[in-house]
UniProtKB/TrEMBL annotation:
Its main location: cytoplasm. Keywords: Calcium, Cytoplasm, Metal-binding, Repeat. It holds the Pfam family EF-hand_7. This is EF-hand domain pair-containing protein.
Length: 184
């Protein structure tokens, strides 16, 4: 099992043929060199909407989840796009209220809708980091950075939880690898 299979299983299990064809057309249009792969900047372009530009840092993080070469395939794009769409849905609200910001009190429920469960302390720490304006709210781009980091953490956890016990013993080498991930 790949370290990223959980993304496909949890966030992109059943893509309709029509949706898949639409995503393929967008991917091919963005893949200007016809290599079958796109860069983080091309991914950012694909995930941006008229209302919000997808954050560069979040696009880079999502690419890093899949590839150390800095490019992703169409199948990987499908999984990422599905995750991002679910993040948008969680941000806008469970009843389609189309909220424009996410308050601190709403974050836990939004994360749970994505299958991400953290302690209140962890959520507070992450919220404080991504609430760069210190207003007590997250915008959609800030939310994308927040959830991309959560997905990266989950991917690393899955990779290092080799006994599937839900716990890690991290040594110096893993600590250095984590540091490298965030330096690049």
């Amino acid at each position: 099992m790949s370290h990223t299979d959980f993304i496909r299983q949890q966030y992109a299990p059943n893509i309709s043929p029509k949706r898949r064809a639409d995503l393929r057309a967008r991917f091919v249009q963005c893949d200007v060199d016809n290599s079958g792969y796109i860069s983080a900047f091309e991914l950012q372009s694909l995930l941006s909407t008229e209302a919000n530009q997808f954050p560069t840092s979040a696009a880079r993080m999502l690419v890093r989840i899949y590839s150390r070469q800095g490019q992703i395939s169409f199948e990987e794009y499908v999984q990422i796009e599905s995750f991002v769409e679910l993040c948008r849905t969680a941000f806008h609200g469970p009843n389609g209220e189309n909220r424009r910001q996410l308050k601190r009190a709403e974050v836990s429920e939004a994360l749970l809708s994505l299958g991400l469960n953290f302690t209140p302390e962890t959520i507070s720490l992450l919220f404080k980091h991504f609430d760069s304006t210190h207003t007590g709210i997250l915008t959609l781009p800030q939310w994308h950075c927040f959830t991309s980091l959560c997905l990266l953490g989950r991917r690393l956890f899955n990779e290092w939880d080799v006994q599937s016990k839900g716990e890690l013993i991290i040594g110096l080498e893993q600590t250095l690898l984590i540091g490298i991930w965030f330096l690049e």
